[in-house]
Design goal:
By secondary structure, this protein is of the alpha/beta class. It is built from ten helices and 38 strands. The chain binds uridine-diphosphate-N-acetylglucosamine and calcium ion.
């Protein structure tokens, strides 16, 4: 299917009305995230890739939250409210009210089956259409079928019905072929059967799965496609399955980038959101998270132990043992180890944000360095600047935030405080320990520290008998002995 040609005889219904009781969460299940996106977001992506004429999402539990998330992905989706009658069958029934004149194929997807992509569904759709079945379901053969509905077949091997785990006899429960919760139905027969589905089962719900047995009883053709890759139909019902699905998705994402030329040393400890982009010859070292819309340029080295969220990392840059959000790191720049880049940080090409440095809402120009132990907030730094160890921009006066502006080629001494608002002109220098409260003109040397005064003998006079006094006395007698020896040698 090409991007713009809609499949006029395909409608997708996504079930997202359930509470997800087994998650034990205040957040609706389908809004829990894997790969940086809510479960239902992955399902919407899959739906969109199939280019259906209609996408209907059924909501009920926390409907506003779910509807907002869904419409945030696409405003062409129709959100439909399920009523107080529970069950997947009822959910599809209310969805069909919004597809009243539709006579094509209805693809039902579950909001909690996030790993199924369009590549897996395209042959499923083709098989369904080729066979003209009233229903085709996707099934999987699992070593442990616990929790899923079982696919029961008749003596000819044809699908006879689906029985839910809670309604299954011991013999039925032993069947390892499970219902993936993904179906294709012809709209007409589906509509007709749903009206007659009852709630006489262990959960008192209108089961969509009952439609399968009913269609068979009414002599319709029903087929099942068994998926080869069972991970693609994993359902997420609890947080154990959530982490399992996240791991499978992540393994896929890592593999995709590896095949595209990215070195990932340890896939198991590397987490890459589906929304991130990595160029060829990027190297990702262990225990690194590349999140949201992060983009990493060619040849950059990221990690170990690094988290990047919504960041842009330039080609050839290195980021070691650091944490950055909404930051731009220039080409061949260097960050870390142990740097914390907060939103609005922009580091120029070949610049450096070094060890134990925190930055926020600041621009650091090309080739400029903040190498050690610093806080740089609300600051603009020009090119070729070097700030000495321990530079602090005091950007907050208890009432408001102010900016520090540092020109090109400025070199500051160690342990400076820049009390904002303040400007340092191009080429200026500052002395060690300076507290810069006033603007420094271009090319000036700013000194703010009082001259040092040594009070000789203070320790021996005021702290007699202490280790310090004894050490001082030893040093003084050694100095005297030295002086005598030197005089004798002359
Ligand atoms: C369902 C199937 C089961 C299948 C499994 C696959 C039924 C009766 N059972 O079981 O055969 O093996 O999926 O993952 O269909 N939902 C609604 N409205 C409701 C109830 C649920 O929209 O009233 C939605 C949920 O939000 C969820 C999906 O339907 O996204 C499936 O519901 P869930 O309760 O998780 O069904 P399972 O017990 O997993
Ligand atoms: Ca489920």
């Amino acid at each position: 299917m090409t991007d713009n040609a809609l499949d006029a005889s395909l409608a997708v219904v996504i079930l997202a009305a359930g509470q997800g009781t087994r998650m034990r969460s205040s957040l609706p299940k389908v809004l829990h995230r894997i790969g940086g996106r809510p479960l239902v977001g992955h399902v919407l992506d899959t739906a969109r890739d199939l280019a259906p004429a209609h996408v209907v999402v059924v909501v009920r539990h926390e409907r506003d939250l779910v509807a907002e998330a869904v419409l945030g992905v696409s405003d062409e989706v129709v959100v439909v409210d399920q009523d107080e009658i529970p069950g997947t069958g009822r959910a599809v029934e209310v969805a069909l009210r919004h597809l009243r004149d539709f006579e094509g194929d209805v693809l039902v997807l579950s909001g909690d089956v996030p790993l199924l992509d369009a590549d897996a569904l395209t042959p499923f759709l083709a098989a369904h259409r080729a066979a003209s079945s009233a229903a085709t379901l996707l099934s999987a053969v699992l070593d442990d079928p616990t929790g899923y509905g079982r696919v029961l077949r008749d003596e000819t091997g044809a699908v006879a019905q689906i029985v839910e785990q809670k309604d299954a006899t011991a013999e039925q429960a032993a069947v390892r072929e499970v219902n993936a919760g993904v179906y294709l139905f012809q709209a007409g027969p589906l509509r007709a059967e749903l009206e007659r589905v009852g709630t006489d089962n262990a959960q008192g719900e209108k089961y969509l799965t009952d439609v399968i047995g009913m269609l068979r009883a009414d002599a319709y053709e029903v087929a099942a496609s068994i998926v080869a890759d069972v991970t693609s139909v994993m359902g997420v019902n609890d947080r154990v399955q959530l982490s399992e699905a996240a791991r499978v998705l992540n393994a896929r994402t890592v593999r995709k980038w590896q095949l595209a030329g990215v070195t990932v040393q340890d896939p198991a400890s590397t987490w890459i959101d589906v929304t991130a982009t990595l160029a060829p010859d990027v190297t990702v070292l262990p225990h690194t998270q590349i999140l949201r819309a992060t983009v990493i340029g060619e040849g950059a080295v990221v990690g170990p132990d690094t988290t990047l969220e919504d960041c842009e990392v330039g080609a050839g840059a290195t980021v070691r043992r650091s944490d950055a959000t909404l930051a731009v790191i220039g080409e061949r720049a260097s960050v870390g180890p142990f740097a914390y880049l907060r939103p609005g940080t922009q580091l120029g090409a070949r610049g450096k944000i070094g060890t134990f440095v925190e930055t926020k809402n600041s621009t650091i120009g090309e080739g400029s360095k903040v190498p050690h132990l610093s806080y740089i907030g609300d600051t603009t730094i020009g090119r070729g600047v070097n700030l000495g160890a321990g530079a602090i921009t005091a950007n907050y006066d208890d009432i408001a935030k102010h900016r520090t502006e540092i020109g090109d080629e400025v070199h500051s001494g160690s342990h400076n405080v820049f009390v904002a608002p303040v400007r340092i002109g191009d080429g200026a220098k500052t002395g060690a320990g300076a507290v810069i409260r006033k603007d420094v003109p271009a090319g000036a040397l700013a000194l703010s520290v009082a001259p040092q005064r040594n009070v000789e003998g203070w320790v021996e006079n005021h702290r007699p008998g202490t280790g310090a006094a004894e050490a001082a006395a030893r040093a003084r007698s050694a100095e005297k002995a030295d002086d005598v020896a030197q005089e004798e040698s002359h």
